[in-house]
Amino acid sequence: MTLLSSQELETARSALQSLQNPVVLKVNLTKDDLAKQFRQFIEPLATASRMVQAIYTTYLEDDPPTIEIKPNLRYMALPAGREMAPFLQTLIFRSQGETSLAERTLSRLATFITPTQIEVFVSPTCPHCPVVVGLVNQLALTSIYLEVTIIDITLFPDFAEKYSIQAVPTLVIEGQDQLVGNISEELLVDKLTNQSPTTFHPDSFKKIVKEGDAEKLAGMMVADAEVYGGALELLTDPDWSVRMGMMVVLEEVAERSPVLVQSVYSYLIDLLTHGDANQRGDMAYLLGLIGNMSILEPLKRLLKDNNTEVAAAAYEAIQQIQEREAAEKSD
Q1: Which CATH number is 304's domain given?
Q2: Do 247 and 325 sit in the same domain of this protein?
Q3: N or C: which end of the chain has fewer CB within 10 A?
Q4: 281 and 162 share a domain?
């Protein structure tokens, strides 16, 4: 059984001839009653082109089924009818590794490191939805920091009710801001790239450091003359790699703006008394890299720590600070 008409299949077959590299579609099937339809929708598309590979995963949860083009771009929708064109075009863009976005947009997204969730609410009969979907999909293909979900309100009305959606297309950004109608590329990009990082959740900063963009995050802090509070919370994250990533951020901030990094000394000193020895050691190590003579006393107290590795880290930090101070005076 197929959910696509013979004409739609022929359209898909013709469009997919433009694929230059294989495209993998991950179909996440769940206990939801609609899961079967999602499989029936994708199966004929996967047979229409040898360049399309469908992977089916089954979960026991009652969550909605999805079609995933990239980890940050998924459909809670069956993109047939009007929605087929932007869906197929997205697969082509994905395959070719390019988009039709304006140079201004590409330039803005090149420095964009703000993890942002965008939900696009559409309906099969909406004449304006395909344009908005096509735009947002390209943004998601360009930036890993944009997490896009296309949602068909006729299939998932509960999601529309959650946000009191009255018209489509509607974009919901971070579960709060709503943009309704055929929004322009320039306006949407400006909206996304002008967010203030001072309000970010720690999880947003965690994604940034995990993606290896510590240097960019440090640059944002220096430009804003502020070390973001949500980012500092990463210094106590259970994941050592996250803590290390944030330490790299602060080291970069210290190099660019020694005065700015001094504003968080008190926060770091408090962590020298953390109950976890690993984190006490991490902070001693960090202060050795970015500290000055003003923080020697707290480090000296750590020399008596009952954990020998922490005490050793404190000793090395003190030595680093004193040597750096002496070198600066000799210059």
Answers
A1: 1.25.10.10
A2: yes
A3: C
A4: no
- Do 37 and 44 touch, CB atoms closer than 8 A? no
Structure tokens given for 330 = 């000799």
Per residue of the chain (331 residues), what is the pLDDT tens digit?
Answer: 567 888 999 999 999 999 999 999 999 999 999 999 999 999 999 999 999 999 999 988 889 999 999 999 999 999 999 999 999 999 999 999 999 999 999 999 999 999 999 999 999 999 999 999 999 999 999 999 999 999 999 999 999 999 999 999 999 999 988 999 999 999 999 999 998 888 888 999 999 999 999 999 999 999 999 999 999 999 999 999 999 999 999 999 999 999 999 999 999 999 999 999 999 999 999 999 999 999 999 999 999 999 999 999 999 999 999 999 898 888 6
Contacting residues for 152 by C-beta, under 8 A, at least 6 apart: 76, 77, 78, 83, 122, 123, 124
- For helices 185-193 and 103-110, the axis angle rounded to 10 degrees is 10
Helix, strand or coil, per DSSP, at residue 109:
helix
3-state secondary structure of 69: strand
- Helix 103-110 vs helix 129-142: angle between axes, to the nearest 10 degrees? 40
Total domains present in the chain = 2
Is the domain of 124 the same as that of 222?
Answer: no
Smallest CA-to-CA distance from 213 within 249, 164, 257 is with 249
User: In this structure, are 115 and 12 located in the same domain?
Assistant: yes
Question: Which of 193, 217, 243 represents a domain boundary (last residue)?
Answer: 193
What phi and psi, each to the nearest 5 degrees, are found at residue 218? Answer: -60, -40
Q: Which domain holds residue 174?
A: 6-20+71-193
Asked if residue 155 is part of any domain, the answer here is: yes
Instruction: Give the separation between CA 170 and CA 98, rounded to whole angstroms.
Output: 26
Q: Which of 193, 212, 234 is the last residue of a domain?
A: 193
Do 15 and 145 lie in one domain? The reply is: yes
CA–chain centroid gap for 204, Å, is: 7
Same domain, 275 and 247: yes
